[in-house]
Amino acid sequence: MAWVYLFIAGIMEVVWAIALKFSEGFTRPLPVVVVIVAGLLSFLFLSLAVRELPIGSAYAIWVGIGAVGVALLGIVWFREPADFWRLFFIGLIVAGVIGLRLVTKNGH
Q1: Measuring CA to CA, which residue among 93, 56, 49, 51 is closest to residue 71?
Q2: Separation CA 21–CA 77 (nearest Å)
Q3: Which residues of 4-41 are buried (b: 16+ CB within 10 A; e: fewer)?
Q4: How does pLDDT run across 52-91, given as a tens digit for each residue?
Q5: Contact 7, 47 (CB under 8 A)
Q6: What is the pLDDT of residues 80-107, one digit of tens each?
Q7: Percentages helix, strand, coil for the chain, rounded to the nearest 5?
Q8: Residue pLDDT, tens place only, 18-40
Q9: Is the entire prediction scored with pTM above 0.90?
């Protein structure tokens, strides 16, 4: 279950970051509520994951899921640049997350 918790934590990381953009500087109440709830859920599920996973790997994967998710949604929803180098470096983050997942075992 630790990997499922970590994945949910990463998705909640994406949700709160995107909601932060929609909150327009914390001036729109509904997105602010989403930021707070998703942020708390992200930390909750990360804390559940690190019961079994090494904190270093879990944290790096959590951040990686969040960074890649927000970067891709930024490209799709906010028309941020999708040039070769940006996509290349997002791909490197994905490769790092996959690599950490492959070498990380529960409890080690």
Answers
A1: 93
A2: 11
A3: ebbbbbbbbbbbbbbbbeebeeeeeeebbebbeebbeb
A4: 999 999 999 999 999 999 999 999 999 999 999 999 999 9
A5: no
A6: 999 999 999 999 999 999 999 999 987 6
A7: 80, 0, 20
A8: 999 999 999 999 999 999 999 99
A9: yes
The residue type of 77 is W
Which amino acid type is present at position 25?
Answer: G
Tell me which residue has tokens 């929609």.
22
Handedness of CA 8, 10, 16, 22 (dihedral sign): negative
DSSP 1: -
